[in-house]
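[Meeting: bench + compute handoff]

Bench side (C.D.) handed over the final construct sequence. Compute side (W.E.) agreed to return the predicted structure before the next meeting so the bench team could plan truncations. Sequence as handed over:
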Amino acid sequence: MAQDTVDGKGAYYNYLAVKEVKIFCPFPNKEVGRLALVDMPGLGDTGIGDSERMIRTLGQDIDFVLFVRRPRIGGDDWFDFDTQLYDTANKALTELPIEDWSFMVLNRDTSNSVLCEIFAEKMQVKHIKVKRTIIANCADETEANNEILGSVLDYLINRIDVLDYRYSTACFDRVSLLQQQTNAAISSFSSIIDALKSEDGMEEFNERFSAFWDAFPIRLEDLLTELIEKRDCEDYHFREDVDKLIQSCRNDKVIVPDQEEIEKLNKRYEGYRTAYEKSLQNIRTQLSIRFLSLETGLNRSLEEIKLQVVGALADQNLGGLVARNNNEPIAASKFLKSVADLIPEKQQKIKFGFQLLANFDLVYRGLIQHRIRKHLDVLTPNKTKYKFEPKLLDELLRKGQSPAERIVGNLNQAYIEAVNNCEKELKGLLREPSQAGFAIVEEFVDRVIRAKGVENEWRDFLWRERSKVWADAFHRMETLQELQKTARDLAERAKATNNANELSELHSIS
């Protein structure tokens, strides 16, 4: 007992802090080379019971086992901890019985020789089987070297190749069995996968598409009918913007300079006529810039019309074509452009229809600007009817009157006339947004539901995007198909890895 005191009492706590001790010493048989002797505590020696560590060490690091037991006078026998130690060691290599790679050493002293013989005879009864039982005095250097270590070395020299072959054969047989079981499991797994119902969903798609194509054209035609009724009506947003702009121009007194400013300009340019012409140009520039704001109103109305189209698409489950962050609303033009980008080039009719509607805008410079500019001629020096001739200037100066008052009067008249004429012109354009909105939607409808062959384009496109449009039916189906494909790939990879030929080659080499 390694941890017992001289009087036979256990003092285990003195050794619990020690995990491993390595001792290096010379070995008399130099031809053997490097030899390691691992001394492991028996299960009866400590209260720790570290059986898992023992099994791991025996199975991975040990080539041969020496069981050492010293019979004691006074009622000693093979006890449970002895057989437990043997059974634990036997679990280390299930492929090779421990009796083929172990000796039992019964440590003889001056008083226990007979007891050692008795212990040796009882080993069979206790089912302790080893290759050889040696009775020797372990304290005697000569006996330890010759009878114990020498016997072990002789046995290993003569039997190590056989033991290695038997061990590798047992391992190969075990792995082969596992290999067969693995292949059987893979085949069973593959059969289960193939047995699962895997449909492409064509029948379901045909039903869904038929319902879509029955309803979608009617929905767009109804929208066109609604827009036709409003086509010749004044656009509310555009009229509101026009009224606000004209009212703002009339209320703004800063745009027309007063007499004091005219006097300053006269001194700066050294002449009242130049001051007058510069003032006309400045008023015209400021007024023309203000009308640019009308473009916002034009496109706000158009965006509402596009939103109606998006609503018609959403009614047919096409809203799912475009992903949204946290279900946030998306601008109609952006939605239509996203759908256009999603449509492949081969579905060119419907793709062009979405591009046309998404990119259509009412632009101030193309629709309104040229109509406004002609009414600003009255604010252009060489075109205005409110002239300030040299003769008039000389007459005012001769009478001692300030030309600045007359200039301000002319500027006010020209400005008021320009604003009034622009208002009349814009009032005649109040129907333009409604008419343009109807026209572009009708063009869209022509492209996406009336053009020849467009039904087939929709069928091909929606088949491609079916899991987005009809997620309730096709998303789960596609997910299942992806899982089946992944499972098949994994099964094929597992089967390729579990290759019996490699193991056979390894076994023949060993």
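W.E. noted at the follow-up: The chain has two domains: 12-139, 202-469. C.D. will use this when planning the next construct.
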